[in-house]
Amino acid sequence: MKIADRQIDIYINTDKKCVPFIIFNSDGDEAIAVNKRLLELGCHDYVLIAISGLDWNSDLSPWSTPAIFKNGEDFKGNADAYLQELINTIIPEVINHLKEKEISAECLSIAGYSLAGLFALYALYNCDLFSNAASASGSLWYPGFMEYIESHKLSDKVDKIYLSLGNTESKTRNPVMAKVEENTIRYYESLKDKINIIYEENEGNHFKDPDIRMAKGIKYLLDQ
Q1: Mutual orientation of helices 29-40 and 210-222 as an angle, nearest 10°?
Q2: What is the mean pLDDT of residues 90-106?
Q3: CATH code at 186?
Q4: Helices (H), strands (E): how many in the chain?
Q5: Which domain covers residue 113, as residue numbers?
């Protein structure tokens, strides 16, 4: 289905009436692989709501910042606008659509990979809609992000957060991206005594097995 020029693909994996809904900002094809991995991991009784058609460097970046690679694209910082689109348009329309199928949300979680993983965490400081978040190989190197979250309050509604990285992601010559492991661990340490949060390392760089990494994060959110 199309909502506000976004492509919404809904994967219903339940015969129950009330189950967790996972909002997954993706690049489209990624969602098919992640849903398949979730089923292989034994997950059931969930609805995966995959949103694509995003301008990643615009819709998912919390504030504007210059490109981190030569000849790269600048980050436009339109995450607040996209979050309001999610809250006010996309999620209500999806919930109404699923209500017609007699399926309601037990809770709402948000998940994403890379910059979408950063956005998932950012959302927890800017609304009270989500109970859980999974940030797989999240872009916590983003300039100013750690300072932002350390000066803002996490939603009281948050129960679980999943963080992961590849064990070679910080081994890069780019001085901005090299901070990703330090910042992710710093974020984990800041919350480990307050909520249910785990940090997991995977083999390889940023691009290795993204579907498996994302599925493991969502599974953690679904596990009782």
Answers
A1: 60
A2: 97
A3: 3.40.50.1820
A4: 8, 10
A5: 2-222
Q: In 10 A of CB 150, how many CB atoms?
A: 10
Work out the pLDDT band at 28, boundaries 50, 70, 90.
confident
How long a stretch of residues is the chain?
224
Cα(102)–Cα(75) distance, rounded to whole angstroms? 40
123-141 pLDDT tens trace: 999 999 999 999 999 999 9
- State residue 69's pLDDT score: 86
Token pair in block for residue 26? 């993706």
Amino acid 180: pLDDT: 97
Q: CA 193, CA 77: separation in Å to the nearest integer?
A: 31
Residue whose C-alpha is closest to residue 218's, from 44, 1, 10, 5: 44
Q: How many domains does the chain have?
A: 1
pTM above 0.90, yes or no: yes
Tokens for 82, please give them.
Answer: 């996209």
For residue 45, give the amino acid letter: D
Amino acid at 119: F
- The span from the CA of 222 to the CA of 216, in Å, is 10
Question: What does 71-140 look like in DSSP terms, one character per residue?
Answer: T-PPEE--HHHHHHHIIIIIHHHHHHHHHHTT-EEEEEEEEEETHHHHHHHHHTTT-S--SEEEEET--T
pLDDT confidence tier of residue 122, bands split at 50, 70 and 90: very high
State how far the Cα of 35 lies from the Cα of 49, in Å rounded to an integer: 10
